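Example record for the data management plan.
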Amino acid sequence: MENQVKTYLKIWNWFIFTALTFLCGGFVGAVTVSFLQIMRFAINLLWAKVPQSFFCIVIFGIKINLYYVILCIAGGVLIGIWQRKYGDYPILLEDILKIYKRDKNIPYNNLGIVFVAALMPLIFGGSVGLGAGLAGIIAMLFCWVRDKYKSSIVYILQNKEKKKRTRLFELIKNPINTFIGVDIIYDGQTYTVSKIKRWSAYLSAAVGGVLAFRIIAKILAHEGIKIAKFGKFVYTSHELLYFLPIVLLGILTGLIFLFSKKLFNYIFKPLQNKKVLRAVICGLILSLVGMFLPYTMFSGEEQMVDLVENWHNWTAPLLFATGFIKILMINCCVSGGWRGGSFFPCLFCATAIGYGLSTFILANQSFIVLTFMASYTAMALGQPLIIIALCMLFAPFSAILPITIAAFIGGFLNKKCMAYIVKSEEGTL
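Corresponding structural encoding:
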């Protein structure tokens, strides 16, 4: 009988654990789709519904759309005021990782502030991705849920003299410990979580998040993030002759990204405490560039879809100009207070430049673009594993080997380059 009770409790524990992680994952999925829905609605309202022809003037035969200037400057004012009042949000991905590694926690008392701060640069056309904002929001939600469950455990333990509550703790300690992913020490007793249980938690939360995302997206008629699909990927001995030269070009372009990042940090450093002025100047630069090269604006996911489908209609100079100038605009926006992610904007840059290279290199176009994409983004941002995963969203499975090699070469050189930059900066202090 005792064994039967223990078996029942284990099954019940597993059920509670699965349900909790599933629901928490679903909540995160709901927040994510809400964020995307609000972003898309606002962008469509401001950039598609408003008749921009009323704001167009002609100077020396050149048509200038003042709407870009008006909207981007307005965005700069709002972003600057928000940051002056609440601080530099959203937190960039690399800073989130550093904070969590140091403190094992991400403060979540200002979740609403971060939510708005993450939306504004995206809505007003900033050349930044949504990854940083969403990553920060999700990290905050995770820490909030973790702390709520930990406080529940403490409450139960503090009242364990009550037999009923002691039994309740015995019933739920395993699923809660498994979910929060940490050991709990109480009265000299340590409750350890196995790796199997932790991965089960991740899987359950992931399933809940995906299901919630898809269900809510369907209800709201939300299309989600559009993903570009490249054509047939071929790498024969002929393509392999170009592999190292393409990787080298990607590395050099990544160096341009890192140099421009350092340059814009230097340019905007005197305006560090003048947040409104800094954001307005950035908005003005963004608008002036966007008037003539509109694809340098926004995060790049949807623009990449259009570029992959219609790049034949672009000239090589236009492809190169769009790609390289967008590199500058990414770092201009981040340094200028229009904070956001860099992954998807960099992927778009790589796509534009890669197709530009394909007009000169007689080889499979998908091979050229994706190899360049992997080496450039890994050199610019590091994180080769993330780069490989993102590239494989667009690429067929046959592309995994050259993408992996190119990404690891870029990631290795990024580490060396960043170590040198840090060392040189320390030497100037």
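Summary line stored alongside the record: The mean pLDDT is 78.
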